[in-house]
Write a structure and sequence with these properties.
Elements: E1 5-9, H1 16-25, E2 29-33, H2 36-41, E3 44-47, H3 53-62, H4 65-74, E4 79-82, H5 84-87, E5 90-95, E6 98-101, E7 106-112, E8 120-125, E9 142-147, E10 149-151, E11 168-175, E12 180-189, E13 192-195, H6 203-214
Parallel strand pairs: 1-2, 1-3, 3-4, 4-13, 5-7
Antiparallel strand pairs: 5-6, 7-10, 8-9, 11-12, 12-13
């Protein structure tokens, strides 16, 4: 059986080399490209992201990454966002006193963490929901975070139950027991999954999570 083909979208923002190595290590064939046809046709698409929300959006749109993501999701084809690649899936980001429109796959706002030390950098545990596929077998492990902004609520899950199942939300916290801020650490929403942490920098736990995602392709 052939290994799944994963495209890591190369648009100038993200730890693309480490992501490529990690996904190759868990058994996928990986192509690093911004080519639209390759990104749309791959079994899985990874959207990495490092830096400011608005700059990442501009980079994505420059290679028509917004359209690539939209077309894949419309066809039920898997997409995995990493770090700012999670954040841009929300409706908007508020950063450095300005607001930028996101890809609006989910309602909600990404804004600055309310924690004693920002950025939130280091290894943290997460609160994974029952039924999570991404965190199967690594529910109690630590993952590597480095970020100053986050989605601190998930409004979609506050709405009444509809015909479609609600997304599975994994949470984590930044700060101290006395002063901490709860934020979205991962989302599993049909073909669209995303993590605020960096699985490619999270050791064996991160590799296991990527392998879980590869198993859905």
């Amino acid at each position: 059986m052939a290994s799944p083909l994963v495209c890591v979208l190369d648009y100038g923002f993200g730890n693309v080399r480490s992501a490529v190595r990690a996904v190759e290590e868990v058994g996928a064939t990986v192509v690093l490209t911004a080519d639209r046809r390759a990104a749309e046709d791959a079994d899985g698409l990874i959207v990495p992201g490092v830096g400011a929300f608005a700059a990442v959006l501009a980079g994505l749109r420059a290679v028509r990454g917004d359209q690539i993501v939209e077309r894949r999701l419309a066809g039920g084809r898997p997409v995995l966002g990493i770090c700012v690649g999670l954040q841009v899936m929300f409706e908007k980001g508020e950063e450095h006193g300005s607001t930028a429109a996101g890809l609006a796959q989910w309602p909600g706002v990404v804004d600055r963490l309310d924690a004693p030390v920002v950025p939130n950098m280091g290894w943290s545990t997460v609160e994974a929901p029952e039924g999570s596929v991404l965190f199967r077998g690594v529910e109690n492990e630590r993952f590597y975070f480095v970020h100053s902004y986050a989605a601190r609520s998930f409004p979609l899950n506050d709405e009444p139950e509809g015909r479609m199942p609600k997304p599975l939300i994994t949470w984590s916290e930044a700060g101290t027991p006395e002063h901490h801020d709860r934020f979205v650490a991962a989302v599993e929403n049909g073909p669209l999954s995303a993590t605020q942490f960096h699985p490619e920098k999270s050791g064996l736990a991160g590799l296991a999570l990527l392998k879980n995602w590869i198993g859905t392709l």
